[in-house]
Design goal:
With 359 residues, the chain is an alpha/beta fold. It is built from 14 helices and 13 strands. It has a 7-stranded mixed β-sheet with strand order 2-8-7-6-5-3-4, with helices on both faces. It has a 4-stranded antiparallel β-sheet with strand order 9-10-13-12, with helices on one face. A two-stranded parallel ribbon has the order 1-11. Helix 8 links the parallel strand 5 and strand 6. Helix 5 packs parallel to helix 6. The longest helix is centred in the last third of the chain and has 22 residues. The protein is globular, with a radius of gyration of 21 Å. 36% of the residues are buried. Bound molecules: pyridoxal-5'-phosphate. Pyridoxal-5'-phosphate (PLP) binds next to helix 5.
Length: 359
């Protein structure tokens, strides 16, 4: 059996490990960029009633026309621009690369960044090129432009704000990259953290036919729903449509989203609350002598400490779970990524850190 596995499964898969998610039971969960708030109870009850009438015996309507039209109107997609929906934006990243991957196809992104760009590139037989950020963890624009010139990538992925650093690339820098990529390949701006920043490239879709804007409802407060979306020129969308699994959005996800699009203010208010708590946390974290706090426009904060293993261990002892990103890239040595939680959770975290730094 093992011989068969070795023969059939691609080396890129054999060498990899499955995506790791630590057990968080009983922990204050500040590791996964989830919105800490649930829907108000009255809305939960209305939603349950709405979902109870969904015909589970039927396949979804595979065009998702009504859902897409409503999303397009509510979520600020320029008029005339269609959407491609994915089972989370993770699926969309896979579809984009799948549509292009041939031996020699290059996927390029600044690193450290969201791991799925590299994972999908590797598993679909494309070549991933990572361009290190500058020492201050901002985009190294010169290095990016040189790498684009040299590697002629099919796709440039820009997580904006960037996961796991929280930093933002300005619209004018994105436009510089778009200009450099003209006639070379597509620029995918991954706006997963759009609810927590004022920067978006979405309004520029009509001006750049090689721009793809991707978002998700996960960080907005619906991580469990699994719905990602992207918009781009129709010519690209119709090619992607050919490889999208026809029923990739299940009826419960579609119905949940239809319902919640009528209640976006609830989620937007939660996002505003998270932004206020982000500022509170940044201010407090900056008071610690041996902590470097990086600017964030997302719902998480990257910090650098003196001894990441000790801080992780002591936080765990106090039942607080954050993400250790220290070993993911040399630029992140001794770095932790902290998701902004509720006011109570954030205070617990700060108390714990004060304790730990006094040890
Ligand atoms: C969380 C995250 C995603 C994944 O979103 P899903 O829709 O939950 O699959 C995509 N891109 C970035 C940058 C993220 O941080």
């Amino acid at each position: 059996m093992n011989k068969l596995i070795q023969k059939i499964i691609r080396p890129s898969v054999l060498e990899d490990v499955a995506y790791q998610v630590p057990d968080a039971s009983g922990m204050v969960k500040l590791d996964a960029m989830e919105n800490p708030y649930r829907l108000p109870e009255i809305l939960q009850i209305d939603l349950a009633e709405h979902l109870s009438r969904v015909p589970l015996n039927r396949y979804p309507i595979p065009t998702y026309r009504a859902l897409k039209e409503k999303m397009q109107a509510v979520l600020g997609v320029p008029s005339g621009f269609d959407l491609l929906l994915g089972n989370g934006s993770d699926e969309l990243i896979g579809l984009l690369i799948m549509a292009s991957a041939q031996p020699g196809t290059v996927v390029l992104a600044p690193i450290p960044t969201f791991v799925m760009y590299e994972r999908f590139a590797r598993h679909l037989g494309a070549t991933f090129i990572g361009v290190p950020l500058a020492d201050n963890l901002c985009l190294d624009k010169t290095a990016m432009l040189e790498a684009i010139e040299r590697h002629q990538p099919a796709w440039v992925f820009l997580s904006n704000p960037n996961n796991p650093t929280g930093g933002i690339i300005s619209v004018s820098d994105i436009i510089t990259i778009l200009n450099a990529m003209e006639n070379i390949g597509f620029v995918v701006v991954d706006e997963a953290y759009e609810p927590f920043t004022h920067t978006t490239i979405m309004p520029y879709l009509p001006y750049y036919s090689h721009l793809v804007v991707m978002r998700t409802v996960s960080k907005l407060g619906l991580a469990g729903v699994r719905l990602g979306y992207l918009s781009a020129a129709d010519a690209l969308l119709s090619e992607l449509e050919k490889i999208r699994p026809p029923y990739n959005i299940n009826v419960l996800t579609a119905a949940t989203m239809m319902f919640l699009l009528n209640h976006m203010t609830v989620l937007k208010e939660q996002a505003e609350h998270i932004c206020a708590q982000r500022q509170y946390l940044i201010n407090k974290l900056q008071e610690y002598a041996h902590v470097t706090v990086y600017p964030s426009e997302a719902n998480f904060i990257l910090i650098r400490v003196l001894d990441v293993d000790k801080v992780m261990e002591e936080l765990k002892n106090r039942h607080i779970l954050v993400k250790n990103v220290s070993h993911t890239h040399p630029l992140l040595t001794n770095c932790l990524r902290i998701t902004v939680g509720t006011e109570v959770e954030n205070r617990l975290l700060l108390h714990a850190l004060t304790d730990i730094f006094l040890l």
